[in-house]
Design goal:
single chain, 215 residues, alpha+beta, six-stranded mixed β-sheet, three-stranded antiparallel β-sheet, 8 helices
Length: 215
C-alpha cells in the first residue's frame, strides 16, 4: 500500500509550528490588550478546553490531516487513566480515532480511502501498557516513582496528537472535506484550521455548524 509522502508530514509540521507561533504572538498581545474580544487562536496557546487545531495538506493523491487537541476534548479527562473505566474509555477513543473514515467525509467521486493513522498521547501509551497485566504489575512494583513523575507531567501537558493519511484515486474531484468528528467528540467545540491545498493556503475556524472545508 502506498504511504503518504514524507513531504506531506513536513508540511504538516510547518503548519503546526506556524500556528504555534501565531498563538504565541496573539497570547502576548492578549496580555496587554484585555479589552480585545475572545481570540480562539490565543486561547489554544493557553490550552483552552473545547479548542483544538486541524492542519490539512493535499498533494496529488495524498491527503494528510493532523489533529492536535487537549485530551479533555476527546477523553473527558486529562489525568493518566488507571481505573478500568478510564482505561476502557481511553481504548474506545483510540479505536474511534483509528476509524478516521468516520470522522472525515470526502466527495464520493474522489475515491478517498484511509491509508494509515498515527496517534500520540501519554494516556494512549498508558492504556497500551495496561493491556498486559504482567507488565503493568512490573511497572507498578519497580517504577512507581518514575510513573508518578510521568503522571504529573502528563497532567501538565495532556495533549493528543493524531495524524490521518488518506489516498484519493480521483483527486480532481476532491473539492471539499466535511469534518464530522464534532459528532464523535462533542467536547470539541472549535478547531483552528490551517490548510495547504491545490487552491492555495487557507485558514479559519471550524465548528459543529460550520464543518466543511471548501477549496
Amino acid at each position: 500500500m502506498r504511504t503518504t509522502p514524507i513531504l506531506l508530514t513536513g508540511l504538516l509540521i510547518a503548519l503546526s509550528l506556524n500556528l504555534q507561533a501565531e498563538e504565541h504572538t496573539h497570547g502576548h498581545a492578549s496580555a496587554h490588550d484585555h479589552h480585545d474580544g475572545h481570540d480562539h487562536s490565543a486561547s489554544l496557546g493557553a490550552h483552552e478546553h473545547g479548542v483544538g487545531s486541524l492542519n490539512l495538506v493535499i498533494d496529488g493523491h495524498a491527503v494528510a490531516i493532523e489533529l492536535d487537541s487537549p485530551a479533555d476534548n476527546l477523553l473527558g479527562f486529562e489525568y493518566m487513566p488507571t481505573s478500568d473505566a478510564d482505561l476502557s474509555k481511553t481504548r474506545e477513543i483510540m479505536t474511534r480515532l483509528e476509524q478516521a473514515d468516520s470522522l472525515f467525509a470526502f466527495p464520493t467521486a474522489a475515491g478517498c480511502q484511509l491509508d494509515k493513522v498515527e496517534l500520540e498521547s501519554a494516556q494512549f501509551d498508558a492504556a497500551k501498557q495496561a493491556n498486559n497485566a504482567h507488565d503493568a504489575h512490573h511497572h507498578a512494583s519497580h517504577e512507581h516513582e518514575h510513573e508518578h513523575n510521568e503522571h504529573k507531567q502528563a497532567d501538565a501537558h495532556a495533549d493528543i496528537s493524531a495524524q490521518f493519511h488518506f489516498l484519493c484515486s480521483q483527486p480532481a474531484a476532491l473539492n471539499q472535506i466535511e469534518v464530522i468528528l464534532f459528532e464523535a467528540f462533542p467536547g470539541t467545540e472549535t478547531l483552528l484550521l490551517q490548510a495547504i491545498t491545490p487552491a492555495g493556503q487557507q485558514g479559519g475556524e471550524l465548528s459543529a455548524t460550520q464543518n466543511i472545508i471548501r477549496f
